[in-house]
Amino acid sequence: MAGCCRLYRCHLADHNQLEYTGIHPTHPKPLAMRRLFSIDILRATAILLMIQVHFVGNLSPREPSSQGLYDLSTILGAFAAPIFTFLVGLSLWLWLNKQKSVGAEDSALRRFIIKRGILIFLFGLIFAVIIWTPAEIFNWDILALIGISTMIVYALRRVPAKYLIALSVLILLIAPPLRELTDYGSHWIYDEYAYDFTLSEVLLGVTLQGYFPLLPWLVFPIIGFCLGRDILQREQTNPKAARNIPTLGLILIVIAAVSAPISQYFPIGSSWYLSPYSFYPASTTFVISKIGFILLAFWFLRWRFDLRESSKPAGGEFIRLYSKFSLTTYAVHHAVHVWPIYLLAALNHPDDIWYYYQDAVSTPVALGLSFVFSVVFYFFLRFLDSRKQLSLEGMLRRLSES
Fold first, then answer.
1. How far apart, in whole angstroms, are the C-alpha atoms of residue 389 and residue 363?
2. Which residues lie closer than 8 Å to 52 by C-beta, 6 or more apart?
3. Residues 6+ apart with CB under 8 A from 298
4. Coil, strand or helix: which one is 33?
5. How many CA atoms lie within 13 A of 325 on its CB side?
6. What is d(CA 297, CA 116) in angstroms, rounded to the nearest whole number?
7. Cα(121)–Cα(147) distance, rounded to whole angstroms?
8. Could you write out the DSSP letters of every residue in 362-399?
9. Residue 305's closest CA among 81, 19, 107?
10. CA–CA distance from 171 to each of 181, 216, 279 (Å)?
11. Which of 66, 74, 263, 324 counts the most CB atoms within 10 A of its CB?
């Protein structure tokens, strides 16, 4: 019972507030006493990149006059989801490590994680209904992926690193052929996912064919968890434990950079792995390259900020708030830019709610609107910071602790 009390009193349910436990050899002060700027920066960057790519992708067409700007937005936006899902695993380890340090019981942690994972999963379904209409309930948004992967990675928490890496490799190997065997392309029309309301279609969607299926997206949280448990943990006593992170990141980037352009010269079986960069579906080269970039970014940010007592990033409050309230921001920014196009269609074209989808404004205007939203919403987040119970993070925490 004491473990449960400590768990709930610490209020560490919110992954945005998870911090590293332990003493780094070069630090006299436990890192759990400080906020990890590396994670804040990565999460804030991810949500800001997601805002701009959603505004551009959902409000504007890819016109010749602004094609370069549209493509740049898409390329940058492709980093957002990999960062978020990577941080799911890393944050889970940080949270578990912190809870263990204050004596939380395994049974309390297990109940908490299962409840939290289910709540995030259900919120993902509700989000799809409210934002994208009930017909899209099983489109498998990233929130559903985060909920399921949180529970899966927790279940795998004691599996040795070599087996988790082997599992990740296996996922990357089987995902492409399984997509082909289940006729992935027939479920995608003009880059939009479509499905029938049958049990088999729903199961195929969540595992292989939806926007963010478990295969291969589960690789990101698994790698994030391994980084925390098997590298940061050892770094407490061995300052050189993380020295190979940038090398590994560069190797993965080079492999992807070489594989993508030569994929066109190989038959389909080989091109499953020597594949072009693709977000839908997440191709092998896409996953490998994004893991490489994330490892490099995390290593640099950790070296630059986390391991230096007095080093703080510019715009620290802006970064902190967007990191802390990334879930609220994710939900609100969708409503702010998607609901107006429904309203316009209802007023002018009531027979077609999608009339203005991807054709409401030009790309420069859509990008400008995303910047305006990001600035204005920051001031709302400042208010929300003093009224934490009003946020989705606060609601999720209360429900998880109940």
1. 36
2. 73, 76, 77, 367, 370, 371, 374
3. 38, 42, 227, 245
4. helix
5. 27
6. 28
7. 4
8. -HHHHHHHHHHHHHHHHHHHHHHHT-GGGSHHHHHHHH
9. 19
10. 15, 6, 16
11. 324
Element (H, E) at 353: none
Q: Tell me if residue 1 falls in helix, strand or coil.
A: coil
CA 236 to chain centre: 27
Calpha distance 375→299 (Å, rounded): 28
| Cβ–Cβ < 8 Å for 288, 272 | no
Cα dist from 277 to 73, 188, 214, 271, whole Å: 15, 17, 18, 11
Six token digits for residue 372 = 């305006």
| Alpha carbons 155 and 226: distance in angstroms, whole number | 13
Q: Report d(CA 326, CA 321) in Å as an integer.
A: 8
Structure tokens given for 279 = 């977000």
Give the closest residue to 343 by CA, choosing from 354, 332, 329, 333.
354
Residue appearing with tokens 């939290």:
116
Which 3 state secondary structure label does DSSP give 189?
A: strand
pLDDT tens-digit profile of 226-283? 999 999 888 877 778 888 999 999 999 999 999 988 887 876 666 688 888 999 999 9
Length of the chain: 402
The domains of the chain are located at 38-401
- Token couple for 360: 């409401």
Alpha-carbon 1 to chain mean position:
33
CA–CA dist 321, 381 (Å, integer): 6
For 308-359, the pLDDT digits (tens) are: 766 778 889 999 999 999 999 999 999 999 999 999 999 999 999 999 999 9
User: Which of these, 266, 345, 298, 385, lies nearest to 89 by C-alpha position?
Assistant: 298
C-beta separation of 187 from 194 below 8 A: yes
Segment 55-109, tens digit of pLDDT: 999 999 999 999 999 999 999 999 999 999 999 999 999 999 889 888 889 999 9
CA dist., res. 183 & res. 185, Å (int): 6
Residue type, 138: F
Q: Which of 302, 296, 290, 304 is nearest to 248 (CA)?
A: 296
- Amino acid in the structure at residue 193: Y
